[in-house]
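Hi there, hope your week has been kind to you so far. Do you reckon you could talk me through the fold, stretch by stretch? I've dropped the whole record in just underneath, so have a look:
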Amino acid sequence: MRFAVVTISDRCSRGQMTDTAGPAAVALLKRQWPDAAIDAALMPDEEDAITALLEQFAADGAALVLTVGGTGFGPRDRTPEATRRVLEREAPGLAEAMRASGAAQTPYAWLSRGVAGLRGNTLIVNLPGSRRAAEQSLAAIFALLKHALDVVAGGQSHP
């Protein structure tokens, strides 16, 4: 199985900050799927470039693409918009589950604008950009991801 984690941050891509959220997401994925190949990328908040990279990972057969960052209210936070341009079918329950889980820790989780869905057989999920929020969000949906990836790969869905 092949996964990708894409950190989207102007400051990290310019070297003004160190990306800790992307590597944390990669580490969590490796614990859950130790045999998966995981690509990692770091890019600025450029909507067209985000769209192109998500399309490329889907075309290359990635089963799961996680984006990290760009889901807030900043003027350059355009990850959800870029993702929606790529998705063929949305999976709003994943984003809702992450927000609900995060809201148990902080009410600011409700401000995350992340989305999730499918492009072909690739599941794409937007995670928040802080390490803690990305880890909590990903942990909140692991069971859902495992089932979704199984179903997309041809497994049985629950009745």
Remarks:
- DSSP finds six helices and six strands in the chain.
- Residues 46 and 78 are 7 Å apart (CA to CA).
